[in-house]
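User: Can you help me understand a structure? I only have the sequence.
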Amino acid sequence: MTSDEPDCRTVVVTGASGGIGRAAAVAFAARGDRLALIARGRAGLDGAVREAEQAGTAKVVAIEADMADPEAVEAAAGRAEEELGPVDVWVNDAFTSVFAPFAEIAPEEFRRVTEVTYLGYVYATGAALRRMLPRNRGVVVQVGSAIAYRGIPLQSAYSGAKHAIQGWHEAVRCELLASGTRVRTTMVQMPAVNTPQFDWVRSRLPQRAQPVPPIYQPEIAARAVLYAADHPGRREYWVGGSTVATLVANAVAPGLLDRYLARTGFSSQQDGRPKPAGKPDNLFEPADAQRDFGAHGRFDGQARARSTQQQAAHTLGALADGARRAASAVPRLGAGFAARMRGTRALRAQDRSV
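Assistant: Let's start by predicting it. Here is the structure, written out as tokens:
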């Protein structure tokens, strides 16, 4: 689908019980799409279903599954198609993390972050492609991060997983292009977003974790996911001025950025308040099994609801699409004009011969 107003589609969203996944599910629902929402937490999924129904989804199915389990992922994909029809769009967003210096992260914790955040995308994309490729249509959207290019302190496991997704996505994209299929995969690199993750990922920080400012609302991320699903021809999209600045700085002067993050990366990821006792932890078990956290975290007071960079990028994209359509119409107009001229000449020749 590349039109600005796509028909009702079947959309699968992983990590749909909170944060960007939750906001994206609601955004697709508002367009009347059919939704399969995948996550581990029952309460979070139930909340996402209610919001999708209120937004106007044609139909919604909630599926409890751990993305680190390839059999569970395959079963979820099968159920989505059985209940909703062929999958048109698959959005990968599920992840987990550990906030701690690398030396303080246990091997089993590092493995778990990698299995959910990286291999979960691999398993899900495999399940999607096994269904899309025979039909020669479909889009897979990988929700990425500026961290896919620029690792940051205290998030080594998550940084590694996002870097892995980036390299793997590039390889898969090349294979799809080489095959000639109409199936596409694209990636959306996100900025810091106001999601519940900062209150439920495992943390060994002395203070409460926070995203590195500036912080954006999850609805901005959701709009980017929808745009990518509608325009999957680009290999990736950058969301937010901070993402653009980070990725450009990392490309131009990565060593300087290393030193800058060494000075600021610890304090900028903590809010100055002691970490509360009994904080939820979603590393091995869902934090939202009994409580629905919603799409937003606790940073509504400082999160940005608009992104000038995103608005400009989407506007330029629309102009580029219009220019491409106009350019493609020129040969057709020329061919039509030439055909009409040939017909006119033939009639004139016929008249002369009578």
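Now, to help you interpret it: The radius of gyration is 23 Å. Residues 112 and 284 are 8 Å apart (CA to CA). Let me know which part you'd like to focus on.
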